[in-house]
Amino acid sequence: MYEIIVSGPVSTNTILLFCPKTKQAAIVDPSFGSLEKIQQIVSENHLHISMILITHSHWDHVLDLAKVKLFYNVDVFAHKDDIPNLLDPGSDQLRAPIPMEKIDACKQLTHNQILPLGQLQIKVLHTPGHTPGSLCFYLENQQVLISGDTFFKNAIGRLDLPTARKEKMKDSLIMLSKLPPKTLVVPGHGPTTTIEKESWLKDPEKQFSLN
User: Are strands 76-79 and 107-109 parallel, antiparallel or unpaired?
Assistant: First the structure.
């Protein structure tokens, strides 16, 4: 149902989501150097890429975006508040160590929107805080959450960046704490975890001082 590809200068998790029955697949956050590994997994599993999903527009999550979009010729989806940085890289005041190519179009996602992927249903959750347009992608039936940089195992996304807002992050984390305890969390960096293992989500301010 998913594969994790770790790549780029800060070990970003690019995630390949796919429906085992229909072979429809989505790429989440194509980071630097991820395209070759994506191609390998797609070929080995006979997958068909139908879309690219972006959790947020920070450079470490999208350095291969233009390349992947061109290769697979599919639409890119993101929240409206993060789309400007995809169309005009660097407008978020964060400089990438590697030149970032812009894309020419991006479709908007909204909170609670449902995206079909074969027989899978991907629920879009707007979780601002790390960036204004941060998103998580939730497969409710399979109890899997792709959390981007909203939170990781025992950590949250950075709040010391120009795009970050602490109060928004607090609200987003409390919302996510209400997901089923056994929900598997696949973050933007680092290992997987579960909602129940991250009990601090119910009182996230404890993490702010560690950020």
Answer: parallel
